Amino acid sequence: MASKVQALDQFDIRLLAAIQRNAELTQTELSQVVNLSAAQCSRRLDRLRSEGLIQNVVAILNPEKLGFTVVAHTLVSLRAHTDEGNTQLHRFIEAAPEILECYSQTGDADFLMKIMASDLDHLSVFLERMIKASGGLASVTSSIVLRTLKKSTELPLQIMQ
After folding, report:
1. Nearest Cα to Cα of residue 99 among 82, 76, 79
2. CATH code, 10-50
3. pTM listed for this prediction
4. How much is the pLDDT for 56?
5. The CATH number of the domain covering residues in 70-144
6. Which residues, at least 6 apart from 33, have a Cβ–Cβ distance to it below 8 Å?
7. Domains 10-50 and 70-144 share a fold
8. pLDDT tens-place string over residues 134-160
């Protein structure tokens, strides 16, 4: 269980900003960016991890170079809001590697999904599989990304300062 989160100071924010840009920075490089000693940076990182502010450190892969050329933003509406239907769809969502993100939301659609596929045929087969596995969807509407203008995993920490 994560401990209570301490208030973040400017050094914590600079440290978090630096590692979200490049988690491979050494302690020495971090200390230069943050303007603290390497030992202080290490202690702060340990605290930020234990407080749950740093969830994970990952490598971000290049989808196009790996053959994933289609990104679809898909709106899904349920036909009926039943426990069984929700459970079926939630199980499918959790198990489907093509679904990178999924949000339950307000508005005209119940869910917004970000789906990654190798090509349009792959996307079509995936959507058919989702419709069959769900047990009843009212609608599925996909918009295909033509070009990515901005893509970031960085939180806007500069607004915290």
Report:
1. 76
2. 1.10.10.10
3. 0.86
4. 93
5. 3.30.70.920
6. 14, 18, 25
7. no
8. 877 999 999 999 999 999 999 999 888
